[in-house]
Design goal:
The structure is a homodimer of 328-residue chains. Chain A has a single domain, classed as 3-Layer(aba) Sandwich (UDP-N-acetylmuramoyl-L-alanine:D-glutamate ligase). In chain A, 35% of the residues lie in helices and 21% in strands. Chain A is built from ten helices and 13 strands. A nine-stranded mixed beta sheet of chain A has the order 5-4-1-8-9-10-11-12-13, sandwiched between helices. The A-B interface holds A 27, 34-43, 72-74, 76-77, 80, 97, 99, 102, 104, 113, 115-117, 119, 182 and B 27, 34-43, 72-74, 76-77, 80, 97, 99, 102, 104, 113, 115-117, 119, 182.
Chain lengths: 328, 328
């Protein structure tokens, strides 16, 4: 079992991270009001796995995406952005009947409400390309949103099995929300099943609450480990992250930035920094610090895809120096 | 068979018009650009049958709506407007899983492109309330959009059969668009079947083209009558409407307004004026003139639901005086 002081030996792969999940339109209200009162909306590039990949590319990693959009104007808009960022789209599928998914969100100082319009995303179909791509990848990253509906769920579960059989590193964002699932009991079971197969999971306190009910951070960590998770990174909002390997005392890493402009996509930025660290042979602890550092740059700018400085700059700015610590 | 010089004897009903169809969010771009380039959208009340009913209410008719929205913020917004306009919502259904439908449209000087997100609308379920409501109504109005998916289509077909058995007046907007239908051949068959059962249909030249292919207005009229349509009102855009009973020479009624600000919802306004005329015992010819008059007021304002003057004012303004002509 991995500890937070270990680093992973990454074999030479043509792709660092392949993600399975949604790319979608975020329609954000311009008004700060309940959604039913909002009249004006602005369209943004969205979808957590898509944000993670774009951020990974900007940190100089090679990525590929298994996803599906509608063969429509919104699908064209999203794939054009992914192409510009050089995300490999060999496994991007285009649906002739179902449209590109959208989530409406209201701007809000409190918890925003959201209204999802599923479409092509639920239709990701199994094919040989997917397995070929996973073979070439070091890390297989899976989102949760995509798991709630079939056939996308079946395709995901088979692809994860394939990745496990080929000793790929599994990174999973275990976010369970009952309203997305036709059967919420089954939903929890499936999320737990993938958690048990994962090397890295990064739940938020909110994710833990929706899966386990009300409890404290330490107990949440224990519950994730009891299911079978490898490394658990529990995000605590303004209190940073709690990282645990299930054997040693959990380590708390504070938020690196005091200036907070917009937290949208902070978790996705964390993933991109963290996985960059893992791919570059950092210890898990240093990779988590790098995750925090990338997130710190993100929350000082607006939007899920604010610009990121080069990896070396981020590392020196936040004094993340694995060699000085003897960690590489 | 009815001729355009006939008027219908309307029995005393508690509801003048019951409509079966969609109420939805029209998301219109603020930019005049292809949809894939549009970033900003404004939300409007939409759905052709919903617009027809609101306009009918404003012309002092009693209406009821058989429709379905999501139990969500957009559904609340739309039903609040229908309630304010006093449309009877005893047969409004609320879906716990599927969201309120949306159509994205770009602002454009050419033909705008549109991108539909279906949801609760496809799920209208049969129940006793629907039949009770139809029993109490004079005119049963059916849209086409709602027919392309089941169970809403099955519920529609059974309700039309019920209305026919109870000698209700059937008004149908026969708009066939292949991309909405899983099976476009079957789609055409179903549209034709309902046309054959209708007292009034109001296709546009575009609708006729999508159903029959390229032809001229006179042949289109003949084709609609050959299927079995009663009165056909073919809308010709800036050339007004062509009204035909299949026996006499078709009558062309020009557009009544030279000032054109926005044609959105002009067809729905026509329906509301036309059906008001029918309910008030005007001849079909005078009712069509009233339809044109209401549409003329509409196109001089912005939005599908621009304000409408009282019926008497519209009739005197456009010199629609059925008694002078000996038509009542």
């Amino acid at each position: 079992m991995l500890t937070i002081n270990d680093s992973l030996e990454i074999k030479d792969n043509s792709i660092d991270v392949t993600a399975y999940g949604e790319v979608l339109i975020d329609m954000i209200s311009r008004e700060e009001a309940p959604l039913r009162q909002c009249q004006n909306f602005t369209r943004y590039f969205g979808g957590s796995p898509a944000n993670v990949l774009v951020n990974l590319q900007r940190l100089n990693n090679a990525t590929a995406f298994i996803s599906r959009v509608g063969r429509d104007d919104f699908g064209e808009y999203l794939t054009a952005i992914l192409e510009e960022e050089n995300v490999n789209l060999d496994c991007m599928q285009f649906d002739d009947k179902l449209a590109t998914p959208i989530i409406f969100v209201n701007k809000s100082k409190e918890t925003p409400s959201w209204l999802p319009y599923r479409g092509a995303d639920i239709n990701i179909e199994e094919n040989k390309n997917i397995y070929e791509k996973i073979k070439q990848t070091a890390v297989y990253f899976i989102g949760s949103f995509i798991l709630s509906q079939n056939p996308a769920r079946k395709t995901a579960l088979k692809s994860i099995e394939f990745a496990l059989n080929h000793n790929k590193i599994i990174a999973f964002d275990p976010s369970f929300r009952a309203r997305l699932w036709p059967d919420s009991k089954k939903g929890k079971e499936i999320i737990k099943e993938i958690i048990s197969e994962s090397d890295f999971i990064k739940p938020s306190l909110d994710d833990a609450f929706h899966l386990f009910g009300k409890d404290n951070p330490e107990n949440y960590l224990k519950k994730y480990h009891d299911i079978g998770a490898g490394i658990v990174i529990l995000t605590l909002g303004k209190n940073g992250v709690l990282i645990s390997d299930g054997k040693n005392e959990p380590l708390q890493i504070p938020v690196f930035s005091k200036k907070v402009i917009d937290v949208t996509g902070a978790g996705d930025s964390f993933w991109s920094g963290f996985l960059s660290g893992i791919i570059n042979g950092l210890t898990i602890r240093a990779a988590a610090e790098l995750g925090n550092a990338v997130a710190a740059f993100k929350i000082q700018g607006v939007g899920a895809l604010s610009s990121i400085p080069p990896l070396s700059e981020i590392m020196s700015y936040y004094n993340i120096n694995p060699s000085e610590r003897g960690e590489i």
